[in-house]
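Example 3.2
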Amino acid sequence: MKIQNFPEHIRQYLIPKPSGHVVYRCLGCEGEYDITQLLYTCPVCGSVLLLVDLNFDRLKKIPTDMWHQIFDYRRMLNVPSVQGIYRYHEFIGPVIPLDAVIYLGEGHTPMVEANSYLQNLVGVRFCFKNDGQNPSASFKDRGMASALSYINFLIQSGRLSDILAICASTGDTSASAALYGAYLQPEVKSAVLLPHKKVTPQQLAQPLGSGATVFEIPGVFDDCMKVVEALSEQYNVALLNSKNAWRIWGQESFSYEISQGFDYDMNHKVIVLPIGNAGNITAVMSGFLKFFEVGIIDSLPKIIGVQSTHANPVYRYYLEPDPEKREFVPVKVRPSVAQAAMIGNPVSMPRVIQLVNAYNERAGSQAIFFAEVEEQAIMDWELTANRNGHIACTQGGESLAGLVEARQHGIVSKDDTVVLDATAHALKFAGFQEMYFENRFPPEFEIVPKASLQNAPRLVQPKDLDKVPTAEKPLEGEDFERFVEQTAKAVAQELGLRHRNKMRS
């Protein structure tokens, strides 16, 4: 829809212009730093950084109804730079001009409501937000669109050139970083570090296909992260993990889309998501807080972060009810089907602590909760969801298992509406489904398949058929007709179908 066809009062707001005064702010010493340099930790005290718009209060001058109209009308624009996460430009990257925005189709993934059978089974109305329908098939594209748009902005302004973008990954981050980096080549080259033999073949294929230099190193994700951190501290590289504050900003779009999807009514809403490196839950809290502060939403939803018993440092931290006695202790992770969340020392933990406090305070009561689930529950609920029309990954199964756990503990009531984060596409983790169906899980996963959830193809070849078709020798005439008739009969018997003629009689 063209600008001149919109109501006159809204036209000036539809195409956002650079605005605000954005700085890095240290969570430790509260020092502030210029965003024209690549920074990931405070150069004074080493703490992680957040991006802060010092002129944020200007957004409060726009009335609530006007904000609703701005975002709803922008949805109708045929302007690529505002069709993705930058529909919410004023909240995500206000200083970035639209011609620097990288849009590869990310954001605005569908919220698919569970069928009545599954909702009755769980005991509450819920839906999956299918972030696996992003370009690289995971939620990481939200943050990467932001991080690479920022880098593109620095390149266009002459502040950067010949950039090597690098990340550690359990799979999804590397796929996304390589994809968005490839879009900016030759100015940007990509390198990724993966834990050896701990990434699915599908995930490994993605950065290779995008042309990134891929390194596999011994250990787990946390070991890869330490190497990448050392590289970012000692060499001129762009770090693309969630330690990068621009990544967090882009992932805030998840909150904004949910708000808009419910027509900005967040009363009795609950968001459930896996924690992993803690960047996503940080972004989701921050996003809802911003919309609440400006008045775009008038209540804060409950948020439930979920971890497997095999990688649960955040859950363990919040087991202690007294904030003064809490002490964060990294854990040694064990093998998990929620592979993207298999992180024992999340880099965004300082952000989590600060934002949990701020969120609960603004909500007026506890609104952030944490749940722990077994590996068995993750796989069982993932398969149950997908048998009911979803495309949930194992992290989506972790979210659903977390919802079930939260229902049992009274955190979620039957009057709530719940949004579950399926962070990636089910096909990325199809290998775990195969292991479940074939009962091939190593003992350390602690998963025993349920026969009711297993599935396998069945070869149909009637014994009285002496001729069957092959690619090299197709059948013809009576031989082919006999093959079709006997095979159809065998399939019908397997399925318990009744013949039409018998049904009429």
